[in-house]
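Researcher: Structure prediction, please.
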Amino acid sequence: LLSHCPRPIGFLVAQKSMHGLIGFFSRLFHCIPVARPQDTAKSGPGTLSVLQGEKLVRGNCTQFTKLDPSKHSICPKGEEPLRIKQINSDTELILNDAPKKDIDNKTYKIFDKMDQTQVYAEVWNRLAHGAAIGIFPEGGSHDRTELLPLKAGVTLMALGTMSKFNKPVYIVPCGLNYFHGHRFRGSVLLEFGRPYKIPQSLGTLYTTNQREACATLLQTIQQLMETVIVHAPDRETLELVHLVRKLYQPTQVQLTPEQYIVLNQRFLSGLKKFKDTPRVQKLWEELLAYKSELTNLGLRDSHIEESTAINGFQAFWLVTARFVLCIVTLILALPGTAINLPIGYTARILAAKHQKEALAASEVKIQGLDVVASKKVSIGVALTPPLYFLYTAIAWWYFGSKEAILTFFGLFVLSAAAIRFGEEGMSIARSLRAIIKIKWIGSKMKDLSSLRKKLQVEIRDIVNELGPSVAEANDDQFDDWRIIKDTTLSTSTSFKPNITGRTNKPFKPVNPWKSAIISDDEWKEIEEVQQIFG
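Model: Predicted structure follows.
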């Protein structure tokens, strides 16, 4: 975000992170520390239960009388914090708001209420003077496939600025879409949504009915965030949507990261809208069966796609060529890998330790992969300089100053070579294993290939039938709306696998987005943003 935004951003950072390497960079970039209730949470004794729509909480072996409604709130495991209105006894209390679903005999944590007066004052002051504030409205990191309920703090910051300083405030939704983010060399797509100017009417409402104004704005922010991320209810749904997109996309078409995200969003939107229709339900069951069969065989969909074009001679040639390339690339990667082995090993061990601690302390993390990713990065950044200086000092001691200088710069060259050749070598090794397995199981591949073609035809037929309803457009408008045109889907092209397994040519949309599509009102709004943001 910092490297792609033209204006400096002051991020809100958890106060517990304001130490060590992360704290150093946070202060360097003028971040604002925020104390979070979950960082000081304590486990409460016993368990509690409350029915959906009711405010009476019943406890089992609890000690509610030790709580203070003005200082504490309770958070059942896996749920949102609940504010306390009144305490009746050790086993009964009344909530301010009823929960949205039943909570049955769950453990809970006790949150301390935080005084954020200084945080809000700093944010309001910066916004009033034209600065930008970066905030993660979910209130923390996680590895779920859906947005967590957004915290109301972002609305208080925006509407408070409008109320106190009579200045317009814009919200720019930013989506971070990770691809294997917890692994080395994982990637991320940063997507910016359209700036949203908060209506002055909400600022006026904030002065008379703060709660209603914040709730309205929070709902809008939720909708804005869902336009820039792939928002799935669970991991299984997300994996199947990826599979649907892969089957729908022709082999000769290579999508840009932006098109990839948008296409997944559209499939999720269509699934949400038509999930109860018999045809979509039947397709979903067939996709589950296909994916389960692939998992049992240890294969991916791309292996089935490629297998239809590989005959016996091609298989022999590919196995031989890829085996040689695999050995060569891995040998070239070996020196750099050995040099950085202490960093990789240490990062892996410490990241796994922090992962266990984070899972034990968090109510929302599933596998704690977000913690693994951040810890590997911070540990790698912290250990690389001293290790490289140690190697340089050893070279200086044994060989002299010139050799030490060559060693220092050579370390970076070898590390870069290890990354490049290591990635290619592992990719080739995986494809080599897949080719051998494909030919080994023989006739089973024909059945899977036939099933894949059937699913592909069904998905494209359903898109043609239901797509206009998802796009809310007629047939002509739908054709312009499509990322992959119908003519591209119907074109039959042979697929010839190559040594690296990469797609052959990039996809260029037939009707690229043009500025002329923007209305006069939209241009006026953009000009206002540019004037406000300088």
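Model: The longest strand covers residues 82-89.
Researcher: Thanks, that helps.
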